[in-house]
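hey team, just a heads up i'm posting the complex here instead of the shared drive bc the drive is being weird again. everything in one block, sequence lines first with there labels, then the predicted structure for the whole assembly after. its two chains so it's a bit long, scroll down
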Amino acid sequence: MRKISIGIIGFGNIGCGVVKILQQRKSLLAQKIGVDIVIKKICDKDISTKRDVTVDKSLLSRDVNEIINDPQIDIIVELIGGINPAKEFILAALKKGKHVVTANKALLAECGNELFSEAAERGKNIYFEASVGAGIPIIKSLKEGLVANKFSSIFGIVNGTSNYVLSQMSKEGCSFANAINQAKLKGFAEKDPTLDIEGIDSAHKLVLLTYLTYGRIVKMKDIFIEGISRISSSDIAYAKELGYEIKLLAIAKKEVDELEVRVHPTFLPVNHLLSSVDGVFNAIYVSSDLAGELMFYGPGAGQLPAASAVVSDIVDLTQDIKAGLFKPTLNSIQDSSIKSLRQIDEFENKYYIRISVVDKPGVLAKISGILAKFGISIASVTQKEKLKAQVVPVVMVTHEVKEKNLRSALKMIDRLGEIKEKSVAIRIEGV
Amino acid sequence: MRKISIGIIGFGNIGCGVVKILQQRKSLLAQKIGVDIVIKKICDKDISTKRDVTVDKSLLSRDVNEIINDPQIDIIVELIGGINPAKEFILAALKKGKHVVTANKALLAECGNELFSEAAERGKNIYFEASVGAGIPIIKSLKEGLVANKFSSIFGIVNGTSNYVLSQMSKEGCSFANAINQAKLKGFAEKDPTLDIEGIDSAHKLVLLTYLTYGRIVKMKDIFIEGISRISSSDIAYAKELGYEIKLLAIAKKEVDELEVRVHPTFLPVNHLLSSVDGVFNAIYVSSDLAGELMFYGPGAGQLPAASAVVSDIVDLTQDIKAGLFKPTLNSIQDSSIKSLRQIDEFENKYYIRISVVDKPGVLAKISGILAKFGISIASVTQKEKLKAQVVPVVMVTHEVKEKNLRSALKMIDRLGEIKEKSVAIRIEGV
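-- predicted structure starts here --
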C-alpha cells in the first residue's frame, strides 16, 4: 500500500486530536482510501509536557525545519494558529512542494490571497475544512457538493462563544455580563473573549465563506463588524415579544451587482431554522440558486470535531497526491456579476429600534417627525409601560431603510431633550 | 482542455434540469475543474414532447444502446427511476467500462449489492448524491467529510411529502385526509402517495444512509416500516401538549453490537432541531463519534436541487477519470463491531400511548395492572375530559420498554370490555 507522510506543526489540543484519530483509525482509513497515512514528524516549541495521546519520542521535534525540509513529507498540517510564524511555515512548505492543511482562519482571512497564490504557482493545494464550523463539512459542501451553484446569500452562526452567550440571555433572561461569566466557567469563552464577542472571529470565517461562495477574498477592513457586547436583556425580551431571536450572524449577501459582507447581531424570525441553533453550536444557512436553501449544523469547536475535519482534508490530499490532482480553482472563480462591495451606508435593512424617552406629551410626535424626515416608515410601534423615573422605552420595527438614513435619524433623535440614553438599533434579516 | 463525454438516460424532469445546468454553467464548471463536460447523447422513450430546455436534435435517441455502446462516453447518468430496465442499463454500462451517476434510491436499495459489486469488479464508481435529500450534499459529507468517523445513529426526515403532511396537521390542526389533499393540490404528493406516506421511500433512502454509515446494505424486508396514515390530529395535539412534534423518521442506530434500522412516526422533543424542519424540507441528523451531532438540511426534492446533486457527481467523476481514481471502498467498510440486526421485538423505546376507555370506576387500575404485569413503567399519565359518550382518552408516556412487551400489553388492554378503539402507540426518540 502506498505510504504518504505528513508533518504536524503544532502539538496542542487539535494536534493531539489529529494524532489520536490517525492512530485509532489507521486501518479503517487505509481500507477506505488505499493509502497508509504516516505521521513522520510532529513539531512544537514544547515537546516535554505530557499530552493526552502517546507518540514515539523520535517523532517529536522543536525544529520546524525537520518537517519543512524533509522531502519525504508530502503534507504539512499547520495547527499553531495566529499569523506569524504560521504564515512563514506554510509559505516555506509550499516552496518545498508540500500540500497544506490548516485550521487557521485568522491567517487565511488576513493573508489568503498571498497563500493561495503561492500554492497555485507551485501547483499545491491548501485545504482548510476545520477553519469554519469545526467538524461540519461546510467547506467541502460549498466547493464540491454545490459546485454548480451560484449563491444569493450565506448566513452563518460561526462563533460558538457568542451563540452560547445569546442563547443563555434568551433562555434564562440573564444579562450579557452574567452570560459571559457562565461561558467562561464552562470553558466556552476565553479569559479575554474580545475576538469572539466583538465579531472578529466570525469575520475571519466570513472571509472564507465569501471566498467559497463568491470567489473573492474580502479584506477584513471591508467587513462591517459589530459584536454582541451591547445587547441588553431587554432587547432580547422585546425580540421575543415581537417573534424574533437575536443571533450574531456572519452575512455575505448579493444585492444586484454588489456584495454585502457584514457581521452583527441580527433579529431573526423565531421560526427561521437558524433561530433554533442554540448554545455553542454553529450553523451555516446557504441560499443557492439550484439546490435551494440549505443548512449545515454542528459543534463549532472542540478537539475531535476540528481534528475530524483536519483528517478529512489529509485524506482528500492523499487522493489528490495519488492522482496528481491540483484543485485550487475549485475555490477561486469570481462571481463576475458582482461589481463592488456595498458600503455600510448603503445597506438596506429592516430595523428594530429601542428609544428611551421621558414620558412627556408630544415626544412620540417629535420622534415620528424625525423618522419621517429621513423617509423611514414604521411597521410597528410599542410604547412600553413606565419602568422608572418617567423613562419609557419606545420599541419600533421599521420597513426597509438605508443604513445612513437610519443613523442620521437616530443621531437627531438622540439629541432631543427627552432622550436619556443612546438609542439602540438592530438589523432584521430572514423575513 | 480535456473533454469528458456523458450520456443521459431519461429525459424527464431531473434529466432536463441536468441538461439546463450543464448548458448554463458550462464555462463556470470548465474553469473550476479544467474539464469540458460534453453531453454526447440523451436517451428517452419519448423524444418528441417539448421540454423546458432546448437541445440539438442530433443528441436525442430512443435507443439506449447508442449510449451504452459508445466508447467515447465515460459516464452514464441514469434518471429513469424504477428497478427495470434501469438495472439492466446500469449493469450493461458498467460492463462497457463506464462510470455511473444515478438518483435511483429504489434501485440501489433493492439491488445495491449487485450493482456495487459489479462496479467494484470493473473498477468503476457509482455515485448517487441525488438519491437522498436531493441537493443536500449528505452522501459526500458522510463518505468524505466524515471519513474518519464512526456513527452511533442517524435520524432522517427524508420524505418531503410525509413531512409536509405532518407539518400541516401540526400547524393547522387538520386531519390526515385533509393534509394529504392539500399536498396533492400543491404538487407535493403523487396521485397515489402510498410509497411516500407508508414509509417505503424513506426506507429506500435509509438503506443508502445505513450503507454509508455502517458499511452494509440492509435488505428492505429487514427494515421495520410504519407509515403516517394512522396518525390522528388528536395524537398531534397530545404530542404538542407533552412538548413533542411527530415526524416520520428513518433511523439507523447502533445499540451495543446490534443495528436497528426502522422507519416510523416518532415523537421528537419540540426543542430537538429536527422538530423545526417543516414542510417539504428534508434533514439528516447524524451522531458521530468525532465530529459530534450534525444536521444537514435542505429541500428534499425538485428538479434543480436533484440536478445540482447529479452535476456534482458528474464533476467528481470527471476528476476520478482524470486521475484514474477508483473509490468504491469509501462506502463499503463494514462496521465490524456490529454483529447483527436487532429484531423489532427487541427494540427498546419510550412510548406515547393513547387508550380510549369507557369512563368507569376501576378501568385505570385494570390498565395499570396490565402494564405492570409486562414490566412497563409509566413516566406520565393524563386522563382527558370526556369527549363523547363516556369514552375518554388516557394518554401515557412510558419509560424505556421492550417493543414485544409493549405490544403484548396493548393487545391485552385492547381486549378489555372498557376499551372501544384500538390503542395507539408511537415511539419517542431524541431524549
